[in-house]
Amino acid sequence: MMLRVLTLLLLVLYPVAWFAPLMRAGLLPLFELSEISVITGLQSLWGSDVILALIVTAFALFALYLKTIGLALVQWNLLDKRAMPTLHVLGRLAMADVFLIALYITVVKGIGIGRLETAWGLYLFTACILASIVIGIVTEKTGLREGARSDT
Q1: Residue 110: pLDDT over 80
Q2: Residue ranges of the domains in the chain?
């Protein structure tokens, strides 16, 4: 029951995390910092590189949300547990965007051009993804145990 509630909570928290500020960036220390979220980052990409924007949108939004919807459906026995390997792959694809954000922060801070500060949305987004991974693992393990019990 608690697993189902956590999964539904993720379906609410993901959109919040997409609009929450991931970081604040500015070119020079004297200028005001601009807040960057997943959505504002995607908006910038759509203006400059549509193909890359499609790829990032697929990983950062769709793969993540589809995995969570799939987990909820499995937990309510509306989707066969055999879908778990596919949901696992979706989760791995979604984790790539957190890696890219971390890489971006590391590179910008390392070069020393401008100023970059992480914001609360980065922690929320990362926590949602990590929670999704844990929920996926627990759902898979409990599903396997229930399947083993029903076979006997």
Answers
A1: no
A2: 50-142
